[in-house]
Specification:
single chain; 502 residues; alpha+beta; 4-stranded antiparallel sheet; 6 strands
């Protein structure tokens, strides 16, 4: 009986704990390894796979005073239904299955897992986390969100849907047109450009005029803008006009009720007028179109008047220049007693021409006579030579008189007078040409002034609304909420960033 070897405590423990037994059993399905050195406090390592997962490392003595046959310490890992770490204290063999600490002579040890025994210690259980609660910072954010976003949104929505009065819109479209023609004035060098028919910048001028204080004053005098837009001030102070508004306030309010769009590429303009009454909105739109037509007519008339004035001034200058040139030419004729210089030149050159013809005839006669007589002293030949010499002397005298002799009544020679005459004649011709061009331009300006060159063409007549379109409640509320959220978010981020850094 005493010779029977006692079972190792690890086996007893395994038998008492099914989980540990399944995880530490050396079966063909489990693989493990041991490693250690023999000593009083042996260590062993074992690893295996089985139905349980336990891990232990311990040092101790085998019950009954027998030393463990393979003192080794090591971890044991297994898989099974009991998969959870644990800590305990106790005495156990150093077979690699248990990790414990106990008061035995083998020193302290650690235990992972739950092993029954007299010295087992229950694992420490951490307290359960308390449920999340609102902190002061969270309450501050919530209160600020309600005060800065939610409350203003409710106020704005209540005002838009319960307080704000409906407004009606009336639209109109127009453009500035120029009359195009290919009259005689354009054929004569494009002189019609002096009449100012270009309308490239009329749309820009009209756009600024509709938004100007002059337009507001004209419409106010005609339709009493203050009376209409201030009648709902006490029921709708946000979208109505104050009763004591000045002309500057009325002009600023005009930009809110009148929207003007202008396309520079096409020259088309469109206006939209809003009012608390559809008929009044249409009346204001019609008045704006009439004032715009009046402005275009005024600009066109001013351009025609300027063109006529400039053309008249150019014509007067051309007339004065032509008159002065002709007066100078008359004074020259009176002083030189030469009525027609061209005729006088023709007469003087005619004498030379006749002498040249006579000289040619005598030379021909001399050649004939020399061919018929062999006597060098023939009196006929001597007579012919004398006539030739006389004609040559006469030609030389006439040429000298024409170039150097003084003209009667003057102290100037004929070439100088001829030069003066040619200068006066050139000036006269140029003055006549300038006068002709100025007269043509003046006639073209009068032709353009006799008809309307620019006018306002309305392609969309002022409309009459049947349903209110303003205020655009959904759009206004959406934009208001967006900006409120942005402002609140930025302010909260800045505040908590500064507080955390402080």
């Amino acid at each position: 009986m005493n010779s029977q070897q006692p079972k190792p405590p690890s086996q007893n423990a395994s038998m008492s704990d099914p989980t540990l037994q399944a995880g530490a059993s050396a079966t063909p399905q489990a693989a493990g390894g041991t490693q250690g050195a023999v000593g009083p406090n042996g260590a062993a390592a074992k690893q295996g796979a089985g139905p349980g997962n336990t891990q232990g490392n311990g040092a101790g003595r085998v019950p009954g005073g027998a030393q463990a046959p393979r003192p080794a310490t090591g971890p044991a890992v297994g898989r099974g239904p009991n998969n959870g770490p644990g800590q305990g204290a106790g005495n156990g063999p150093g077979n690699g299955h248990n990790r414990g600490a106990g008061p035995g002579p083998n020193g302290p040890g650690k235990k992972a897992g739950t092993l029954p025994g007299p010295h087992a210690v229950k694992p420490k259980v951490l307290p359960v986390a308390s449920p999340a609660t609102l902190k002061p910072r969270h309450r501050g954010l919530l209160i600020s969100f309600i005060a800065c976003v939610l409350a203003p949104m409710i106020v704005i929505a209540a005002y838009l849907w319960l307080v704000a009065d409906d407004r009606y819109a009336s639209t109109a479209g127009f453009t500035v047109r120029s009359e195009e023609s290919t009259g005689a004035s354009e054929l004569l060098g494009g002189l019609a450009t002096f009449t100012g028919t270009s309308s490239s910048s009329d749309g820009d001028v009209l756009y600024e005029f509709i938004r100007s204080q002059q337009m507001v004053q004209a419409i106010d005098q005609e339709l009493d803008l203050r009376g209409h837009y201030s009648q709902n001030y006490w029921s709708d102070p946000v979208f109505a006009l104050a009763p004591d508004a000045t002309i500057e306030d009325l002009t600023a309010y005009w930009d809110r009720i009148v929207q003007v769009s202008y396309d520079q590429s096409t020259g088309l303009s469109e206006i939209e007028v809003t009012a608390f009454d559809p008929d009044y909105a249409q009346a204001v739109t019609r008045a704006v179109v009439m004032e715009s037509q009046r402005l275009i007519n005024m600009l066109s008339e001013a351009a025609r008047n300027d063109a006529l004035r400039y053309a008249r001034e150019d014509l007067d200058l051309a007339q004065d220049r032509l008159r002065d040139t002709r007066a100078s030419l008359t004074e020259f004729r009176t002083r030189t007693q030469i009525v027609d210089v061209d005729s006088d030149i023709a007469s003087r050159t005619g004498v030379l021409t006749n002498l040249q013809q006579s000289l040619a005839q005598e030379l021909v006669a001399q050649d004939e006579l020399s061919g018929t007589t062999s006597r060098p002293d023939d009196p006929r030949l001597a007579q012919t030579q004398r006539r030739i010499q006389v004609i040559r002397d006469r030609i030389s005298e006439e040429r000298r008189n024409l170039a150097t002799s003084k003209v009667e009544g003057t102290d100037e020679d004929y070439p100088s007078l001829l030069s003066q005459y040619e200068g006066l004649e050139v000036e006269r011709q140029f003055a006549e040409s300038a006068y002709t061009a100025a007269l043509t331009a003046f006639d073209a300006a009068k032709a353009e002034a006799s008809r309307q060159s620019r006018y306002l063409a309305t392609y969309v007549a002022p409309t009459l609304a049947q349903a209110s379109e303003y205020p655009q409640r959904g759009q206004i509320l959406g934009l208001a909420v967006l900006f409120l959220l942005l402002a609140w978010g930025i302010a909260a981020l800045v505040y908590y960033s500064i507080r955390d850094r402080g």
